Amino acid sequence: MCRFARKLLTPANSIPDFHAFVLAGGKSRRLGQDKALVQLEGKPLILRAAEILQPFVTQVTVLAPEGRYESYGLPVVADQWPDQGPLGAICTGLLSSPAEWNIFLACDLPLVSRQFLHLLVERGQATNSNAAVPRTEDGWQPPSAVYHSRCQTAFARASQQGEWSIVKLLDGIPVEVITSAEMANAGVSEFDLLNVNTPEDWVRIGELAKGAR
Q1: What angle do CA 125, 145, 201 make, to 5 degrees?
Q2: Positive/negative CA dihedral, 193, 194, 197, 202
Q3: Looking at residue 119, what DSSP letter applies?
Q4: What does each C-alpha distance from 51 to 42, 86, 92, 112 come to in angstroms?
Q5: For all residues of the chain together, what is the average pLDDT?
Q6: In contact, 188 and 113? CB cutoff 8 Å
Q7: Which of 99, 108, 204, 206 is geometrically suited to a Cys-Cys bond with 196, CB 3.0 to 4.6 A?
């Protein structure tokens, strides 16, 4: 755990290891290009996601098809269920991780902030639940949340049964909800979880990024 996170949270000897995974296995059909490689301010989104995670965790790993992003200097774990959405990707990460707590972050969140990641780490330390997941006006945000290794059993069972609804899975495990109001109180902007799916989304992201400077 980094010095920054230790200073903000609790004494170092009480901090569990956190591993992080960047989810980058999507096909980006609506955007028309690989969203993980779209550049904002001269840097691809996959690297922006990894760099903002690094101060909070012991390691950052990319979840993506093998051979796609190794040239960026990050370890890559191939999604065992590449066509089954975030549940399959998160299950892959949990089964491969040696850490107690695991942060998952979608690669297509150009405006995500350190405040948001600090909130996830803080909740992971404090909760007795198996996960801490944001829930905004748009609904659950499971690809950008923190999960304990205790979730491995539930995720593995769902994958074995072919149940790929992650929202349904969340209904069956102890989850701490992180609300929009709580995020706002922690200094997290409403734009932190704004993702890029279409060219129009990307234009909006660019305008918001310019306005933030």
Answers
A1: 145
A2: negative
A3: H
A4: 14, 21, 22, 11
A5: 87
A6: yes
A7: 108
Element spanning 51, H or E:
helix 45-53
Rg of the chain over all Cα atoms, to the nearest angstrom: 16
Domains of the chain, by residue range, sit at 3-212
Read off the pLDDT band of 8 (50, 70, 90).
Answer: very low
One-letter amino acid of 33: Q
CATH of domain 3-212: 3.90.550.10
C-alpha atoms less than 13 angstroms from C-alpha of 67 in its C-beta half-sphere = 0
The CB-side HSE value for 142 (13 A sphere, CA atoms) comes to: 21
Provide the pLDDT for residue 16. 61
Q: What is the pLDDT of residues 88-120, one digit of tens each?
A: 999 999 999 999 999 999 999 999 999 999 999
- Residue 186's identity, in one-letter code, is A
pTM: 0.88
